[in-house]
Amino acid sequence: MSQLHTADTRDPWQAPPVDDGDAERFCSTCVFGRVCMPQGFSKDALNRLHCLIEHVGPFQAGQTIFRINDPFSAVFSVRAGLVKTFVIDDKGREQVLGFYTPGELIGLDAVYPSRYPCNAVALDTTLLCRFSFGAMANLAQELPGLQQTLFQLMSKDISAALWGKGDYSAEEKFAGFLLDWGRRLARRGFSARNFNLPMARTDIASFLSLAPETVSRVIRKLSDDGVARFDRREVELLKPEALRKLASAIPNLGLD
Amino acid sequence: MSQLHTADTRDPWQAPPVDDGDAERFCSTCVFGRVCMPQGFSKDALNRLHCLIEHVGPFQAGQTIFRINDPFSAVFSVRAGLVKTFVIDDKGREQVLGFYTPGELIGLDAVYPSRYPCNAVALDTTLLCRFSFGAMANLAQELPGLQQTLFQLMSKDISAALWGKGDYSAEEKFAGFLLDWGRRLARRGFSARNFNLPMARTDIASFLSLAPETVSRVIRKLSDDGVARFDRREVELLKPEALRKLASAIPNLGLD
DNA sequence: GTTCCGGATTGATTGAAGTCAAGTAGGCGC
DNA sequence: GCGCCTACTTGACTTCAATCAATCCGGAAC
Hints:
The structure is a homodimer.
Chain A (H helix, E strand, L loop, with lengths): L22 H5 L5 H4 L6 H9 L1 E7 L4 E3 L7 E7 L2 E6 L5 E7 L4 E2 L12 E4 L3 E7 H10 L1 H19 L7 H18 L6 E3 L4 H7 L4 H13 L3 E4 L2 E4 L2 H8 L9
Helix pairs in contact in A: 4-5, 6-9, 7-8
Chain A binds a DNA duplex through helix 8.
C-alpha cells in the first residue's frame, strides 16, 4: 500500500510517531497519566518509558485495531475516539465485551494467553497510545510505582468484567449502562448528565445482552417517564436519582 | 475466644502455620506452584517467599473467609475444599461470582480498590494458603518470574470473569459449566468425565443467573437425552461431544 | 430538492425461563 | 426405627424479552 494516500486512508500502523505537544491535554486523563508524566520517576526512566510508547492512528470508524488470536505484544490507551471489543460466537453473532473512551486501556486480558482474546475496532476516528507490554514489564521491574499501577489496572479490569453479571431487567441494565458511561465521561471533566452515546444501539444491545428492539423500548419508556431525554445519540439525564434507583439492583463490585 | 476449643471450631485465623510436608501433594497443582517450589529461585528468595505464605484453616462449610469491603491485604490459594465468592444485591438476593477448587487463587480483584469486592465462604472443609499481596509485590520487584506470574494470573482472571457474558440458553450455560468444571478438575489429575459437583444447585443456578428450578429441569433434560447421568451431586458425562456442541455457543475467551 | 439506504422504532406474536405452589427424598438427630 | 429439615424436583401458570415484520427517519449521494 502506497504512503501517498490521503491521511485518512493510510495504514494507521505506518503513521509516524507524533509529538504534538498535547501531553497535557490527553495524557492527564489517561490511566497511565501518572506513569508517563514527569513526576516521581527519574529522567532516565521517563526517557525509556517514552521510547516504548508509540502513537498510532488515526483509525477510521470500522477499522480493526487487533483481531482475536493475534499474538499479543502491547496494550493500547485511547487518546481520542472510541473503541469496542467483541467476539463472534459460533452462530456468527457478535457479542460486544466493552467500549473504551479516551483515557482507558485495552488489552490487559491478552497477557496470559499471549494472544488477544477478542477483536477491537474503532467506532469513530481514533488515536491510540501503544505500550509494548514486555518493555513495560521490564521497566516495572525497576519502578515499583509502575508495577503497582499495572497490578491495579488489571485488578480493576477483573471487577469491570464482572459488571452486570446476574439477571437484571432490561431497564436496570440500561440504567446502569447510562450511569456508568456518564461516570466515565465525568472522569475526563465532561458532564455526567448531558452527553453522547456514540455507539450504535445494536452495540449497546449486544453489550447488555438485549435485542436492539428492547433497547429501543427501554429508551422509549425512560423518555415517557421523564427520566431522561434522548435525541438521536444525545442523552440528558433528567432524573439521575430514578436511574440510580433502577441501577441499584446491580452490585458495583469495587468500581468507583 | 479461647484456644482450647476443639480443632473444628477454633478460629481458623488462629491456626498455627503447619509444615505437614505435603508440598508435593498440594503445591504441585497450585497456580503458584512454580513460585513456591524450589526451581529457578535463589534459596534466599524462596525463604523469604515461604515467610510470606501462611497456611490458614480449616474453615468449615459455611464459614466466612472474607467479607465484602474488608480491607485487602492478601490473596488466597485453595489447598483443599471449595470456596464460593458472591455479592448480595439490594433486594437481598445472592449473586454467586465464582467457585474455587484446589489450586485456584482468590482475591486478585481486590488489589485495586484495596478492599475485597465480594464475600468468600467455604462450601466444604477448606484449607488455604494466604499470600500477603504487598510482600508478594515487593518480592516480584526482584523476581521477574514472579511478576510475570502475577500479571498472567490477573490477566487470566479478566478472561474468566468475562466467561458466559452474553445471552445463552439455560442448557448452553449449564453445559458450559459442566465442561469448565471438568476441565478444572482434570488439571489436578481427576477425571473430566466422572466427577462431583460439590456446590448446591441453588449456587450453580445463581452463578449461571438461572432459577434453581431451571437448573433442575436442564439436568432432567440432559438425563433424558442420555447426555449425562446425575446421581445426587455425582455426574458422569456420557456424551461429552453433545455437551461441547451445546456449549460451543459460548466463546472461550482465551481460557485453556 | 429527490432517492436511497441502514439504523432505529413500533407493533404483534411467540417462547424460554421465572415464579408460585406442591410434593419428594436424603441426611441427621434422637 | 422415626420425624424433621433442607435441598431438590415437578407441575401449572405468568411474564419479560426475543423474534418477526412492517414502517420510519436522517444522512449521504446525486
